[in-house]
Amino acid sequence: MSGFVPPPYPYARLNDLKQQILQRHDSVVDLSIGAPFDPPPDAVVAALATSGTERSYPPSAGTQEYREAASRWFQRRFDVRVDADHIAATVGSKEFVALLPQLMSLRTPERDTVLFPAISYPSYEMGATLAGCRAVAVPFRSDGSMDLDAVDAEDAERALLLWSNSPGNPTGQLDDLQAAAGWGRAHGVPVFSDECYIEFTWSSTGRTILEHGLDGVVAVHSLSKRSNFAGARAGFYAGDPDIVEYLRSVRQHAGLMVPGPVQAAAAVALDDDEHVQIQRDRYHRRMTLMAEVLGEWSGDTVELPQGGFYLWIPAADGWEYATKLAHSAGAVVSPGEFYGADGARNVRVAVVQPDDQIELVAERLRRTTRNG
User: Fold this and answer.
1) What is d(CA 49, CA 240) in angstroms, rounded to the nearest whole number?
2) Is residue 45 part of a domain?
């Protein structure tokens, strides 16, 4: 008798490439995982040590201070009013993504299908698997939005929830969030919009699904990317009052809590926009440089994304491209198949390393290009 056997963690599959790099170069530059390397603001780090909140249990839903800071952020950055009572905390965003189908299926047991973008962060599909639900991928249109017209009528009827991700990981595309909200309302399907890269929207201003009303929709956010706060695990969700209250209540029973000092520091981070602009400038500069040198090395133009800090590069074979780049530049990138079968003819380059490491990769690529 056998039970569930977890698949290999995608990024663990790159360990062999790292060993190959060390046979050719004196160091590995890891551009495979979107982990920030730049520091959060000093005031945020200071708040971690001075809040005094480590002495008691933090509220699972989030402190009033944290939720009000998130409410102010929505109003200030996106001109959207969301009451603090309709916002709740998450331990980062990945646990929320992975646990959501299980919690929603308890609420609506007659539905068993999770809809998610066909090229996307693996946790949408894994969350469905962990909940014993069906995972059904939604293809993209040519403009990068999900083709919701392609969803089979039976899948729509069985849908427990729909995930949107804009700006998208790994592609950087911007989804039509108004269309996603409208589709969900028309089919009675809650729409969860993962907007963790919203502050790194390049082709327009950042957009949230909450611009189109709160009914039936929830926006998911994180300070990991915005404020280089990934190690602290601070996120939040906001939107439909009934859904937020349901999730707040059941998550409280599960003991899911963001540590008090982290909530205090996160509130400081949310109230400060200056450090976000500094980080935007860093990522845009790094992506521009990497796109230029990768284009010269490969002979093909590398396009900048509409959002996020990943280069999503077409390749005849994602693993072959990743291997050649590892040998030439000592850099590890992610083959596109990590993000779904539709991504197999691409690679994702996470331009997150500090400037000196990005410059090191650029110099290695230039040297390879010069030497033919």
Assistant:
1) 34
2) no
Distance CA 168, CA 146 (A): 11
Question: 136-144 long-range CB contacts below 8 Å, 24 or more apart?
Answer: 137/340, 137/342, 138/162, 139/342, 140/171, 140/173, 140/342, 143/173, 143/176, 144/168, 144/171, 144/173, 144/174, 144/175, 144/306
Q: Looking at residue 369, what is its pLDDT?
A: 86
Q: Answer yes or no: do 117 and 250 share one domain.
A: yes
Flag whether pLDDT at 372 surpasses 80: no
Give the residue from 133, 160, 157, 138 showing the smallest Cα distance to 149: 138
CATH of the domain at 115: 3.40.640.10
Taking a C-beta distance cutoff of 8 angstroms, is the pair 115, 163 a contact?
Answer: yes
- Contact between 40 and 276 (Cβ < 8 Å): no
Cα-to-chain-centroid distance, residue 216: 21
Same domain flag for 61 and 102: yes
Q: What DSSP character marks residue 144?
A: S
* pLDDT bucket at 313, cuts 50 / 70 / 90: very high
For residue 293, being part of any structural domain is answered with yes
The dihedrals phi and psi of 234, each to the nearest 5 degrees, come to -125, 120
Q: Extract the tokens encoding 104.
A: 């929603």
Same domain as 291, residue 261: no
* pLDDT for 273 beyond 80: yes
pLDDT digit string, tens, across residues 11-24: 888 999 999 999 99
What CATH number should be reported for the domain holding residue 321? 3.90.1150.10
Contact 310, 351 (CB under 8 A): yes
Mean pLDDT of 167-192: 98
**Overall pTM surpassing 0.85 (yes/no):** yes
pLDDT computed for residue 129 by the predictor: 96
Asked if 169 and 350 touch (Cβ cutoff 8 Å), the reply is no
Is the pLDDT confidence value at 41 over 90?
yes
Two structure tokens written together for 201: 């929207």
**What average pLDDT does range 190-210 have in this prediction?**
97
- The answer on 305 and 212 residing in a single domain is no
Q: What is the mean pLDDT of the chain?
A: 96
- Can you name the residues that pair with 311 across neighbouring β-strands? 349
Q: Which one of 270, 289, 308 terminates a domain?
A: 270
